[in-house]
Design goal:
Rossmann fold, 16% strand, binds 1-O-phosphono-beta-D-fructopyranose, 45% helix, globular, five-stranded parallel sheet, single chain, 14 helices, alpha/beta
Length: 341
């Protein structure tokens, strides 16, 4: 099997995985709405490990933006080992996210949460026969996110899309349903159109460091894409909030640095100004946005529904760099697909 066989297939099949996930969520709509977070809990907490912790960061910010609830994200190890500094008083709805459904820290965090009667558990995972899929008051299963490759790509975007749909359901945003249904086509168009650009950037050996900028619901996605670049290609890579980049990290900009902006519409002008500063320092740029970027979605979809579109091209850049370095993104150095303690 050639290097990256599974990862390539998993990245390119994301639109189909998203369509299947939307069907699952549609069937689970009443269970999701029945959790009634606004009425039953004083806070919502998302949790996971590694990629699924970064997913939790992105999902928490979006859920709070849409619902107005207090929503935070913690690594599962923090909930497990430092519950008092993590959970505020009152009942909590805990949303545990895991591709495998058997990561030890996530299971321990959920067990401790349930034992301490802090509230109720909602799980999002991909394998029905794994422990996490049986622990929740509600368990959403997304088999289309299952993967062979260690580095999450299809699993991440599918689980993240599920979290986005759940947030929209809780916020009673029925108007977002049309945008969700059009995401698979928008994702397919992105992959078809921008794969050559991703290959060009990924195989450019003159780039020696990557900075991923994302704010609000996109910050967790910037963290995830930065992790992908690390895991797949063993490159120096760091995520920042857009405006934070000026407060020190921009000192690292050189002509060999590529800064990728997950630029929003709502704050697009301010975020573009940061990218202009990077350019003025001689840094290289990749601006990913709904309109006006080197990668543009042109989707016409609701901004809160389309954040998943920032993922495929960033994943492809990491994938192409891994392959061009003679590495195998299916089996990243030093990594296992599940951390069991
Ligand atoms: C969590 C995780 C992944 C990471 C690696 C090791 O897995 O940290 O995020 O990429 O595969 O495990 P899971 O709980 O989402 O299965």
């Amino acid at each position: 099997m050639e290097n990256g066989h599974f990862t390539r297939q998993e990245i390119y099949s994301q639109p189909e995985a998203w369509a299947a996930a939307l069907d699952v969520l549609n069937e689970s709509r009443h269970e999701i709405i029945g959790l009634q977070p606004a009425r039953r809990y004083s806070q919502v907490i998302f949790t996971g490990c590694g990629s699924t912790y970064y997913l939790s960061l992105a999902a928490a910010t979006l859920t709070q933006e849409l619902t107005g609830l207090s929503v935070r994200a913690f690594p599962a190890s923090e909930l497990w080992l430092s519950p008092r500094s993590s959970y505020a008083d009152g009942q909590t709805l805990l949303v545990a996210v895991s591709r495998s459904g058997e990561t030890t820290e996530t299971l321990r965090a959920c067990e401790a949460f349930l034992t301490s009667q802090r509230g109720d558990l909602l799980t999002l995972s991909c394998y029905a026969d794994m422990p996490l899929a049986k622990m929740g008051k509600v368990n959403i299963l997304l088999p289309s996110g299952q993967e062979q490759s260690v580095a999450q790509t299809r699993a991440f975007s599918t689980l993240y899309l599920a979290a986005t749909v759940i947030a929209a359901e809780w916020a009673k945003r029925l108007d977002m349903a049309d945008s969700f249904s059009r995401l698979p086509d928008a994702g397919r168009k992105l992959l078809d159109h921008y794969a050559p650009l991703a290959a060009e950037l990924g195989s450019d050996a003159s780039i020696d460091r990557f900075y991923w900028l994302g704010s609000g619901p996109r910050h967790g996605l910037a963290c995830e894409l930065s992790l992908k670049m690390k895991e797949m290609s063993l490159s120096h890579s760091e995520p920042f909030h857009f405006m934070e980049f000026r407060h020190g990290p921009k000192s690292m900009i050189t002509p060999n640095a590529l800064t990728i902006g997950l630029r929003s519409t709502v704050n697009g002008l301010k975020e573009a100004a940061v990218l202009e500063d990077v350019k003025a320092l001689g840094g290289r740029l990749l601006d990913i946005a709904e309109a006006g970027g080197q990668v543009q979605f042109g989707s016409g979809l609701d901004e809160a529904a389309r954040n998943v579109l920032y993922l495929p091209i960033g994943q492809l850049i990491a994938f192409e760099r891994s392959i061009s370095k003679g590495l195998n993104p299916d089996r990243p150095t030093n990594l296992d697909s599940v951390v069991k303690l």
